[in-house]
Amino acid sequence: MTTIEDLPASAAAAPWLDDPLHTRDPRGAAEHAHLEALLRCWLIETGASVTPGPLRVEFPATGLALVTELRHCSPTGWHRFGPVAIEGPSGHVGDDADPVVAISLLAAEASARGGAREGGVPSGEVADLVERTAESVRRVTTYIGHRREHPEPPDDGFLDAEQALVLGHLKHPAPKSRDGLSERESEVYSPEQRGSFRLHWFAADESVISHDAIADAPSLDRRDAVTLMADLAERKLADGRVLVPAHPWQARDLVHRPRIAALIEQGRLEPLGELGPHWWPTSSVRTLYRPDADVMLKLSLGLRLTNSKRESTRTELRRGLEINRLLDAGYAASTFEAHRGFAITRDPAWLAVDEPGRDGGPDVTGLDVAVREVPEGVADLRCLAGLVAPRPGEGRSRLGELVAVLGSASGGCSEAAERWVADYTDRVLVPMLHLYAATGIGLEAHQQNTLVRLDADGGVARATFRDNQGYYLAASHEPKVLDVLGVDASTLAVVDDAIVDERLSYYLLRNQALAVVGCLAVDGLADETTLLGVMAERLRVALGQLENAGQDGDRLARRWLTAESLPCKGNLLTRLHGIDEVLAPLDAQSVYLDAPNPLREVTR
Fold it and tell me: Which domains does the chain have, with CATH numbers?
């Protein structure tokens, strides 16, 4: 694999030295990546109109401005910029901007404008955001440096894609903020540094344990959650005690929490330390993978990753099994019949220190595990976020490399990119729309939750969704779900249909599908407008199928093709308001705003 370190300094440094993201200095690359992310956030969340060429972003609250060159102007928001500098009140342009100074300017300006919610920006959130951005820059510097020192990827293609998000979310002000993680812990626990570790296990009295499982789930091999945990720990306990795994960081933190400390003091919970073989963190950090295991484990982790602490609630643990039961009852049969390559990864079991006999216990357990099946043929699955992720100092993204190879084999790069987008729309995006239309279930299928199954040539063969948390249910469909399950309430995130439409317009279209378009255009493989036209055409073709599935899907697809603007999540404003997206009410999880619809221009 060629990296910038392999290129001679005289190699018309064109694609390398002229692009600040590909500088030989890891710190410089990390700083520029954050500056680009901040500018993308600001331009999207303020509704600024931009064109290629010189760009000046003014901040009246401080009298300063950021000046740069917009080198790639992207309808999908995947803008690329040249070096960024600060312009003073006198018009003097100083040295290259520092992302910590830049976020201070952006945050101060947004706060002066009142933020996005009544009451303005909460006290202390500006300083907190600045701190988080500084931390994120430090971590990305480390990740880039690590990749320069250890460039060879693992042999496992699935794991390689899971570890590929070196820069993180390209439209977030602090994409790699992980407060509470030391440098040594980061080496071990971070997928970006290809870490691995053994789990920490607790022995719990049966009286403080809740668990459930799908009895005939193939990955469980007729084991319940208790038996499965003992097998994974490679240890047996006396009757009446249950093994519970924890992320090592979480285990260290838990013993200081009053509830857990009391259970330990009472002898109902005992820390056992590390047991069993090593596990590898995936792109979510807290979901762990072992190449030789039939299951993955999703653990609670009290670190604040980007916006939220990642600790599962009782409802989320139960949600995975509800989806299993709905699918087993044939609730989504029409979608799987119409789109035979589409699948949902099952989460067939969970176990938690839950104290079931205790009234008014906390909804967040802190010590729990959700079991996820390893999909069949996992070697051919790739996390979409890993495919489209930029690779500082290495050239094109993994997706860009795949499409370039396809183009060299036949038809040229532009044709290969158009074919990839068409297949992606048909085999990944449309099945998710069909599911929503037929069942009212909306998938929170952002890039990390979307797995693309590649064929032998690197093309799109099939798709899989994963995430036991990420299921919305349109309220109009709730009675049918309750009837199928024979229950009084659903664990799915039941909200008004209009809110599900809003969420899916962001997660399915903006965050997921349009990332494919933006990535291929940034990698220079095709014109972005052409690729948007391909996606729009495939959506038009799919409308006929969706009409047969129900009004909801038809409504959403038509909105994507005809609306002048569509909902977009504002990560800068969400973070600036200090919103925890895991614990916030469903109708106020994030700051959403309307932004121009990039499909509209190509469908006029």
Answer: 4-180 (no CATH), 196-330+346-373 (no CATH), 378-562 (1.10.510.40)
